[in-house]
Amino acid sequence: MNLPPPPGDEPAPPDPSDPYAREAQIFPRLTPAMAERIAAYGRHERLPAGTVVFQRGQRSVDFFLVLEGSIEIFDLDEHGRERVFTTHGPRQFTGELDLFNDRMILVSGRTGAASEVVRLPRTDFLRLVTSEPDIAEILMRAFILRRVGLIQHAQGGVVLIGPGRQADTLTLQRFLTRNGYPHRLLDTDTDPDAGGMLRCFGLDATQLPVVIAQGERVLRNPGIGELADQLGLTERVDAAQVYDLAVVGAGPAGLAAAVYAASEGLKTIVVEASAPGGQAGTSSKIENYLGFPTGISGQALAGRAQVQAQKFGARLAISRAVAGLECEDTPYTLRLDDGQAVRARAVVVATGARYRRLALPHCTRFDGQGLHYAATAMEARLCGGEEVVVVGGGNSAGQAAMYLSRVAAHVHILVRGEGLAATMSDYLVQRIARSPTVTLHPHSEITAMQGDERLRSVTWTHRRTGESVTRPVTNVFLMIGAEPNTDWLRGCLALDDKGFVVTGADADGRALPSPYATSQPGVFAVGDVRSGSVKRVASGVGEGSVVIQAVHRFLSPAG
């Protein structure tokens, strides 16, 4: 097996966070008995050396178990040079997470010597993982680690070139990161290699940011939809297909609904406008979610749930927003923003909510230029050694403040109320109180933001004393309130005065068959988008799992 060499001449100590250091899990060698069981699902083949078994950019590729010989996994770097980074030997296997979906694969594979293999077409592979749980556990762990390895080492991905603090660059990087797509950022403001890459492709600063795909394709400041299409992250929807269930939104509630629906045999599709995880996916660490005593990032939780749903057969249509619901006839039709349509007998609305914006003149020009609505590693790298402001008193704001305090010179938390106790979990309140690099400012709100092409300073005012403070803050994190993502539902479902979906009772107050039932039969709402819901990850997951019982009752009323 060939692993990426460490930089420099001297061997570097093993990085415990590097999945390639966990060789027995990322590239396991199966027992002879397991290999024999896998062979029963596929067909034996003898292949000469140099046979290409799959190529980057293909969809729905086969799974291979090596019996004799080897399969080399390779890719082209940004200069078009071939690079072999893994070789699978006897009783090892190919594949990573894209075996569970219909996206374009990230790497190529070929036999390194004359080889005997077992080939499993995708349908047989999916039958294997649902029928052999002990083998599936080994495969799933390896696939997840392999994707993490590709991301950490920027293998099989793209190169993003642009100013690291520019809004367009951040938008593209955020989309790639949240969708688990390997990439390397060349910051033209700081990276000495960026100039050479620009000259190599005949580019200048006016064309940035650009994405270099497969060492040759240049995408000049693409929109999210275009980028997703070019990288093969999107899957075409068959307009003639009628699904049992369409889930709109891939946050915790939507993914839970997809997992339970697909695992119980419902033909399920999930439609998501941006990336799995929803608002929770932007959280640096969730520490009070059951079963994760050391915490888990929102993105990691969403990534695992996405794979889990796909393992049971759910389809995910990513980077496609739902523009409207045609609710006059059944099956229901979801109109997507790209003109496609999804038809389903039942619908679960799980589009969640978004943070409110500041009601200040001209502040929207700082979106992505110092004004952020998430606090992940990507945003944290912009804050090194600087003062930052977090606005909000909920758990998301507390998690963001503590996470950013590791890199920022100081974190200022602004809340309009008396304190945090009424809106934030106690463990976060106590950490904030003990932190020397975090200061809470009660009864305070931002009253001015100053800057040129990006944010340069912030003024906040104490609402009772009228005293104002201006600080050289270039990054503000807004985590205030919640506005439901329900514009696409108006005219179809009953909404409350704040725009959240009304569930559980009809217009006359009579109880509906499910607490998650809406005014439209067969359309349900779960998670943050539902009026009166508890805005917590765990409650969203619970609602998403429980609602499937009501979906079954609607689809099979006689049962």
As a whole number of angstroms, the C-alpha radius of gyration is 25 Å
**CATH topology grouping of the largest domain:** FAD/NAD(P)-binding domain
Strand content: 15-25%
Give the full name of the CATH homologous superfamily of the largest domain: FAD/NAD(P)-binding domain
Rounded mean pLDDT is 93
Please report the distance between the alpha carbons of the first and last residues: 54 Å
Number of strands: 28
Structural class: alpha/beta
Give the domain tally.
4
Compute the number of helices.
13
User: Which consecutive residue ranges, at least 5 long each, have pLDDT under 50?
Assistant: none
CATH top level of the largest domain is Alpha Beta
Helix content: 10-25%
Shape descriptor: globular
| CATH architecture designation of the largest domain | 3-Layer(bba) Sandwich
Largest sheet, strands/sense/barrel: 7 strands, mixed
GO molecular function: oxidoreductase activity
Domain Cyclic nucleotide-binding: 26-146
Organism: Ramlibacter tataouinensis (strain ATCC BAA-407 / DSM 14655 / LMG 21543 / TTB310)
InterPro entries: cNMP-bd_dom, cNMP-bd_dom_sf, FAD/NAD-bd_sf, FAD/NAD-binding_dom, Ferredoxin-NADP_redctase_2, RmlC-like_jellyroll
